[in-house]
């Protein structure tokens, strides 16, 4: 039973806030749900399946379904960090194709900025029952230094430079200048990035994504319902998900889980990277983008630095327009989870509803790839390929 | 001073929290790095656990040499004092997370030979394995 084309994304909505000190996380979730339903032309009573992840307070779907007054027959709260929402799209297709859901609502929201969370630089103590906790926490694994260790090794093995990584931020900033909601709207240069303060070597402050409040929501539905609505048809044609970890000590930080989540998605879609017109690539850090581009097959392994340099990711300039909303690097990383905004901007591009300055001409095929967790220890890559029908 | 001050090392729980990993912490208390080895594949395992992730079969706890090379690292400049997190590839094969200590961080390099140094963690925590230039 193929999932190809089993579902369409008919609603996609990003909360405009980047600082929500006067709102609760549940309210942000609900506002995103309403926004996506309005976008689709549906109401909450049409929803019969609900998907959320670790950013939802309390017992995830139980709390959120109660708060929002939903009545559903299928729930999923898979938590694989920031890529949970790509995973949710795939799981929604599985529910649709097996007749267990018609209209699937996916929400994300959070307020790390209002809560003053040092997202990337402060190690977070967990329960000692987490099997790795006592063997990692003493060494200070924050978020930034875990990704930074991947960058150090990539530079060593492939000669990747800080200037090449900086081009990823430069491209994001070129896009963010057109997004009135973006946190960082100033266009930056390679020099600005490499001269910004070092956070975790070799990653500078401008190699890191923003810390923002906000959220987003998606509506995935079956073909019959999608075709009855008034929105442009954005069909899901490929999905893949894969975990990668320390492999019992056989650590290899030169590649990401995209190496494993990409191929099943490409195969299902029946296309290759050269067919893609627009790419949403998870951008917690610049190195995240570079490694995923390689691992998804947009360039040879080790050639990511050359691929991203000289504006190749800038819409209207380069060959692969990426993160045209400014991405997590400049616009938004709500709840410290950037997966859903990747899908939302891909939907905007396929509908022709991106900002005119960054809209890709004849955008008919797009990818939205997420990396959740920590690239340096345990993460899940998840790939969604979308087609404008 | 080129060599950064040693930060206080935090620890969650105690060495007794998980009986499964007692041989590792007993080793640390005795100044030895003791790791599980998969009985079937003979691969040493990081992080310590009492079942092999290669086979779901049994492990044997064995002392390893404590010699290794730096596989990768990052200096957390935003911390006070800064510290150098790393993966060290042990002579016996596995790569383990650690910190590189007692060195000017500017001199840390991938491939550098390193050796064990145990440092006491805070509170009721055990000594844990760190690495210094060999």
The 3D shape of chain A can be described as globular
What's the overall geometry of chain B?
globular
| Percent range of helical residues of chain A | 25-40%
The CATH topology of chain B turns out to be OB fold (Dihydrolipoamide Acetyltransferase, E2P)
Q: Radius of gyration of chain B from the CA trace?
A: 15 Å
Supply the helix-strand structural class of chain B.
mainly beta
Q: For the terminal residues of chain A, how far apart are their CA atoms?
A: 21 Å
DSSP helix fraction of chain B: under 10%
CATH architecture of chain B: Beta Barrel
CATH class category label of chain A: Alpha Beta
What's the overall average pLDDT of chain B, rounded?
A: 96
CATH H-level superfamily of chain A: Thiolase/Chalcone synthase
Question: What order do the strands of the largest sheet of chain A run in, or round the barrel if closed?
Answer: 1-7-4-2-3
How many domains of chain B? The number is 1
Q: Main β-sheet of chain A: number of strands, strand sense, barrel status?
A: 5 strands, mixed
For this entry, what is the oligomeric state of its chains? heterodimer
Beta percentage of chain B is: 35-45%
CATH third-level topology of chain A: Peroxisomal Thiolase, Chain A, domain 1
Number of domains of chain A: 1
Question: Could you give a quick summary of the protein structure above?
Answer:
With 389 residues, chain A is of the alpha/beta class. Chain A has 13 helices and eleven strands. Chain A has a single domain (8-115, 209-388), classed as Peroxisomal Thiolase, Chain A, domain 1 (3-Layer(aba) Sandwich).
């Amino acid at each position: 039973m193929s999932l190809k084309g089993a579902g369409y994304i008919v609603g996609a909505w990003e909360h405009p806030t980047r600082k929500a000190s006067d709102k609760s996380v549940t309210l942000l979730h609900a506002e995103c749900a309403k926004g996506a339903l309005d976008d689709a032309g549906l109401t909450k009573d049409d929803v019969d399946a609900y998907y959320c992840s670790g950013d939802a307070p309390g017992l995830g779907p139980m709390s959120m379904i109660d708060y929002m007054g939903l009545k559903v027959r299928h729930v999923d709260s898979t938590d694989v960090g920031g890529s949970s929402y790509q995973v949710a799209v795939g799981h929604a297709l599985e529910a649709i194709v097996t007749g267990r859901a018609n209209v699937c609502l996916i929400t994300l929201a959070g307020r790390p900025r209002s809560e003053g969370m040092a997202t990337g630089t402060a190690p977070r103590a967990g329960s000692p029952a987490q099997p790795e906790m006592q063997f990692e926490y003493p060494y200070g694994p924050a978020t930034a230094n875990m990704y930074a260790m991947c960058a150090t090794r990539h530079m060593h093995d492939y000669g990747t430079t800080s200037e090449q990584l900086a081009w990823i931020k430069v491209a994001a900033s070129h896009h963010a200048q057109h997004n009135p909601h973006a946190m960082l709207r100033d266009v930056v240069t390679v020099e600005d990035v490499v001269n910004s303060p070092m956070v975790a070597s070799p990653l500078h402050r401008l190699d890191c994504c923003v810390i923002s409040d906000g959220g987003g929501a998606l509506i995935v539905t079956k073909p019959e319902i999608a075709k009855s609505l008034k929105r442009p048809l954005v069909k899901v044609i490929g999905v893949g998900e894969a975990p990668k970890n320390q492999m019992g000590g056989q650590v290899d930080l030169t590649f990401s889980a995209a190496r494993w989540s990409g191929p099943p998605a490409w195969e299902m879609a029946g296309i290759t990277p050269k067919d893609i017109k627009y790419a949403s690539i998870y951008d917690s850090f610049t190195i995240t983008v570079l490694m995923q581009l390689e691992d998804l097959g947009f360039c040879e392994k080790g050639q990511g630095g050359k691929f991203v340099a000289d504006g190749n990711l800038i819409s209207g300039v380069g060959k692969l327009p990426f993160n045209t909303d400014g991405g997590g690097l400049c616009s938004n990383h709500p709840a410290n989870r950037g997966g859903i905004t990747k899908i939302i901007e891909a939907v905007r591009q396929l509908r022709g509803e991106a900002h005119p300055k960054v809209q890709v001409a004849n955008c008919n095929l797009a990818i939205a790839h997420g990396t959740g967790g920590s690239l340096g220890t345990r993460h899940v890559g998840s790939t969604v390929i979308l087609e404008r029908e | 001073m080129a060599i950064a001050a040693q930060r206080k090392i935090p620890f969650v729980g105690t060495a007794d929290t998980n009986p499964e990993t007692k041989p590792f912490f007993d080793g640390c208390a005795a100044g030895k790095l003791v790791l599980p080895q998969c009985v079937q594949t003979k691969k040493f395992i990081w992080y310590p656990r009492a079942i092999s992730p290669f086979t779901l079969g049994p492990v044997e706890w064995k002392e390893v040499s404590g010699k290794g090379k730096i596989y990768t690292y990052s200096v957390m400049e935003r911390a006070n004092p800064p510290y150098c997190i790393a993966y060290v590839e042990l002579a016996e094969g596995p790569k383990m997370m650690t910190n590189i200590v007692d060195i000017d961080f500017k001199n840390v390099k991938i491939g550098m030979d390193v050796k064990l140094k145990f440092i006491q963690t805070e509170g009721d925590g055990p000594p844990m394995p760190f690495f210094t230039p060999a």
